[in-house]
Each structure stands twice: as C-alpha cells, then as structure tokens.
Specification:
Strand order of the largest sheet: 2-1-3-4-5
Structural class: alpha/beta
Distance between the termini: 66 Å
Number of strands: 15
CATH architecture of the largest domain: 3-Layer(aba) Sandwich
CATH topology of the largest domain: Rossmann fold
CATH superfamily of the largest domain: Response regulator
Number of helices: 7
C-alpha cells in the first residue's frame, strides 16, 4: 500500500496550521499534499492530488463543504470538522471516518488518526447519503464561537464572548479583549460575516463592537454617538450610517 496523503480544507488559517502541525507529529508517515482555504480550493486539491484522506470543514466559503464531500465520495476517507455537533450522528451513520468538533484537541485527533489508519486498507465510503441528509436539515448559521490567535510561540483560544471590539487594520483585523490585543489575517468584512449580528454590531467602517461590552453611549460635541466600554478605556466612534442602532436606547 502506498504512503497515505491528505488534504486539509479549513477556512481558518490558524486552525488549519494547528491541525497540520498535530497531524505531522502524530502521523509522520502521512504526507499533507495540499491545504485549502475554501471549498473551491478543496475541489481543486481533490482533482489534482487525489488524496487518501480529506480533513474537511463542513461550512466554508466558495463551494460548500457538502459539495466537496460529494466530490470526495468513494475517493477519499473523510473526516468532518465543524463548530456544531448536530451533524455528528448523521456523519457516522453515513460512513464518515470521524467527526471533529471545534476546537480540535490533540487527544481527540489521536483517536481520529487511529480510525483513519484502520480504514486506509478499505474503499472510502459513499457519502452521498450524508450529503443528501444534511442538505435537508435546518442548519443554523455557523457564527464564530471562538478563534485561535497567535500568542508568542503558541496559539491561544479566545471565545467570542471575550471579544470587546474589532478594528480594521489595513487588510487585517485587530481583536481586543479586556486586557489584550491580537492581529488576525482576516479582514474586518470577513470577520463581520462570521460573527453573530445579534451580539456584534458594526458601528463604523473600521469598528465592530460586542454589544455586551458596551458600558454607555453618549453624543459627542459634534452630535455623533460615541461608545464607552466596560473593560477598556477607548472611546469608539459611531458613524452616521450606524447611528440608528442607538437612537432608541
């Protein structure tokens, strides 16, 4: 049997790098031939590399994870990754090798590696059943519940609830918690699409605030609204297009 190969399809770059690092440590014989940041890249990697293993986020931009799973059906052993556990039973019943819920821990991934090694000698499962099943489900939006951020030589887990606000920083985004600041490679627009709009309000083209982090809202001498936070000293501006969010407060 030839050496196993894998493609990792995950739109969060830090999580993707973390999974790659753990797999390389746990399974040295596995060659990771490609990484994909969205569904379209995943489909291209499948066609180009024909991997024996596909580590796949169910919900990604571009082609959906379900479309990628359908393309991989019978061709690669698939491990699903997502922030939601509602897909787990269906995934196992329909033949996925494993199901990993974010955040992915090393002990849980070790179990997945063991299951993959046991399956490699068999033909990959037909996944059309799970694709059809999941398409018929009422899936809630995959709003961000946590993120991994660089912290020295390590990656730190920050939950959405810990975020006070986000600020555009050129093509990147600065994330502020009560006592720290982190830089993400995603743009503010990309982060806005991944955050729950009930909890995170865009207040300016450069700022998104966690509503639960707001201490008070007041008018400046120019007549525009400004926000003061509970746990930080910054005063955040509210631009005119977003002022309606606070007029009834």
């Amino acid at each position: 049997m030839s050496a196993p190969t894998a493609v990792i399809a995950e739109d969060e770059p830090l999580l993707r790098a973390e999974i790659r690092g753990m797999l390389e440590t746990m399974w040295p014989e596995l060659t990771i031939v490609a990484e994909a940041a969205d569904g379209n890249e995943a489909l291209q990697a499948l066609r180009l590399h024909a991997p024996s293993v596909l580590v796949l986020d169910i919900q990604m931009p571009g082609a959906t994870g379900l479309e990628v799973a359908q393309a991989a059906s019978g061709k690669a052993h698939v491990v699903f990754i997502t922030a939601y556990n509602q897909h787990a039973i269906a995934a196992f019943e329909q033949g996925a090798v494993d199901y990993l819920q974010k955040p992915v821990s090393a002990p849980r991934l070790e179990i997945t590696v063991k299951r993959l090694k046991e399956r490699l000698s068999s033909v990959p499962a037909d996944l059309h059943g799970i694709v059809n099943l999941l398409k018929g489900m009422e899936l809630e939006p995959a709003y961000l519940k946590w993120l991994t951020v660089p912290h020295g030589e390590e990656l730190k887990l920050v939950t959405a609830d810990e975020i006070c606000y986000l600020r555009a920083d050129s093509k990147y985004t600065s994330v502020f918690t009560c006592d720290s600041e982190y830089l993400l490679t995603s743009s503010l627009k990309q982060m806005r699409e991944r955050l729950d709009p009930k909890s995170f309000w865009p207040i300016h083209r450069s700022f998104i605030v966690n509503v639960s982090a707001i201490r008070s809202v007041h008018r400046s001498f120019r007549g525009s609204f400004e926000i003061r936070l509970k746990q930080r000293n910054e005063v955040l501006p509210v631009s005119a297009p977003h002022a309606h969010l606070f007029r009834n407060l």
